[in-house]
Amino acid sequence: MTTTAAPTLGNPIGNGNGGVPSEPVEAPQRPPNRRGLFDFALMSVLVYAVYAMTPIGAIVETGVNVARGQKERPSWLSTFKGRETAVAMSEEAVADASAAEGKIPLPIAAAADKHKIDVEALAALISVHGACTPTACDVETPPRTSTVYPPAATKARLSADEAAAAIAAATKEHGRNGELAVEALFVGSIPLKLALEQADRSHLDNAADVEVHAPFFTPSVRRGSLQGALGVIAVYRLRTLAWPADPGFRITSSFGDRVHPVTGKKAFHNGTDVGTPIGTPLHAAHNGGVKRQSRDSISGNYVVLDHGLGIETVYCHLDSAGVVEGARVERKNTVGLSGNTGRVTGPHLHYIVRVHDKPIDAEKVGESPTRGGGLSEPPPPPPPAKPVEPVKPAKAVKPKKPKAGEQAAVDAGPAPPPPAAPTPATPTSDAQTQAAPDQPAPPLAPVDAGY
Ligand SMILES: [Zn+2]
After folding, report:
1. CB 273 within 8 A of CB 350
2. On the chain, which terminus has fewer CB atoms closer than 10 Å, C or N?
3. How far is the CA of 205 from the centre of ligand 1 (A)?
């Protein structure tokens, strides 16, 4: 038994190894060859998988990019979590996004007008990757701009006019929305087209959203050039947020430090109160998903929308919510009816805009009725700080660390306003007065939030 088994085992091994009997000459040679090739292919796949899918690969690549002087620093493990991480914003980009409040400098407005492009897309690009003087703006050339705008190939920086021309070319090619135009300048026209096609082919909804088609980029695009686009897209989204209620409703309490209307203590107001009567329809600030629809004793009925890239909007004290958790909403869809639920002294909307969980001043971004449509206007002559105004120090300190773009907007003040500058059609002058940083705050309206 044992004697028969041993030779049978020994035979094939012996043959495979080159064979002690030398009768078949070719047979022993082929298998090693094939195996070598197979091993090599397998090893290549493994190395690629480690590089593309694991934290080790992410760390190695981030390390290489940082060593090569890459400015954007995605978190070390940012690509490991798949979809979600493909669009993780760097800390730097978050800071830029919070600075989206800047008004639009005149050189940007002029260039956008000349090339008939979305002025907010150009403003977002320059505010994140560029700089402005009162008379001119320029921007670091996004890495793949020449794929849509060949003259950019030889330039390290683009003027506002050239950047506008590049966005115009990208818009012509990719249509759909301003986000895609900006994205094309960073990832290149063809990779963007392929990713969009694949997302469409996979029947994904909203394929034009970077979060949806980003997984179809190669890992090196996702971790590399795309990162530069994400901050711009986030700022663009903030700059184009719709106002949640009819702009005619008075803003009854602004964002920042204030004396709490219920407790009487000094407290930070993390949102903006809009004096909407019960039953007023409220609109989604942007496309997104309903992250939460719930109720508590302070916020009353509330809805949280997730607009991607860390941007969220929150609508509190609703009479009733018009959406359910998990639903998709489009910009300006009704999310609910205003009410007076929760800790309030009267009906109103407490509206919060958050970037990575940090609340920012909603009046300074998007279509806020007090932002003046985002175009730079001659500011009123700024009187020195009034000590009478302890309630809103946040406003007064605002220009502490101006971004280049904002500075330009301020400096450009004395220049005549652009012909197109729309005076915000706010029927009530109250909102205007309240927003002006140098005006004394009107007495707090009785209508106010506890939250
Ligand atoms: Zn409030």
Report:
1. yes
2. N
3. 34
Give the model confidence (pLDDT) of 173-200 as tens digits. 887 678 999 999 999 999 999 999 998 8
Higher pLDDT, 369 or 276: 276
Residue 450 Cα to ligand 1 midpoint, Å, equals 6
CA of 261 to the centre of ligand 1 (A): 10
pLDDT tens-digit series, residues 129-156: 988 888 899 999 999 999 999 999 999 9
CATH H superfamily, domain 251-375+422-435: Glucose Permease (Domain IIA) (2.70.70.10)
Tell me, in angstroms, the distance from the centre of ligand 1 to residue 338's CA: 13
Contact between 339 and 318 (Cβ < 8 Å): yes
Residue 399 Cα to ligand 1 middle (Å)? 24
Q: How many angstroms is it from 351 CA to the middle of ligand 1?
A: 7
* pLDDT score recorded for residue 62: 67
Q: Which residue has the tokens 């009725």?
A: 369
Joined together, the tokens standing for residue 253 give: 């309490």
Is 16 a residue whose pLDDT tops 50? Answer: no
**In the chain, where the domains are located:** 57-239, 251-375+422-435
